[in-house]
Amino acid sequence: MERVSFDVEFLFRASPTILYKFFTDASAIIRWFCDECDVEGDEYTFTWDGADEVANMIDDIEDERIRFKWEDADSDDEYYEVRFSRSEVTGETILEITDFCDSDEVEDQKRLWASQIKKLRIETGG
Questions:
Q1: Chain centroid, CA 27 distance in Å
Q2: pTM to 2 decimals?
Q3: DSSP β-bridge partners for residue 67
Q4: Model confidence over 37-47: pLDDT tens digits?
Q5: Which of 10, 23, 37, 54 lies in the 20 to 30 Å Cα band around 119?
């Protein structure tokens, strides 16, 4: 199956600084993303239902962008990236995510991100 990238975008009332913490700090990550998280340097071990997935942070511009590469990615070109920016019109934070999946799973993955982001929205107050 062909692997493709996809983008999803969400608006938040929370600042880029707060959102950045929820993507980089283990104690904040477990509040919305996974069951457990262990961070050692740039290596993040995420645990869901007892299964570990390891990702390395390969790019980090605080409050602006984070990029992770999964250790078991199908291709060296695959990554998971989060970008934070401010809407000049509304003042809201624009959260943009780029991820990869099989071409027939794009809509499922977008729904999964929407579900996770719903939890993140509750944790950040909006």
A1: 15
A2: 0.92
A3: 59, 81
A4: 999 999 999 99
A5: 54
The CA-based angle 120-123-126, given to 5 degrees, is 75
* Distance between first and last Cα of the chain: 37
Strand partners, 99: 6
User: If 0-12 CB within 10 Å is exposed, 13-18 middle and 19+ buried, where does residue 22 land?
Assistant: buried
Measured CA to CA, the distance from residue 13 to residue 91 in angstroms comes to 8
Tell me if 109 sits within 8 A of 98, measured CB to CB: no
Element (H, E) at 56: strand 51-61
Summarize pLDDT for 56-99 with one digit per residue, the tens.
999 999 999 999 999 998 888 999 999 999 999 999 999 999 99
Is 77 within 8 Å of 67 (Cβ atoms)?
A: no
Q: Which CATH architecture has domain 3-24+57-124?
A: 2-Layer Sandwich (3.30)
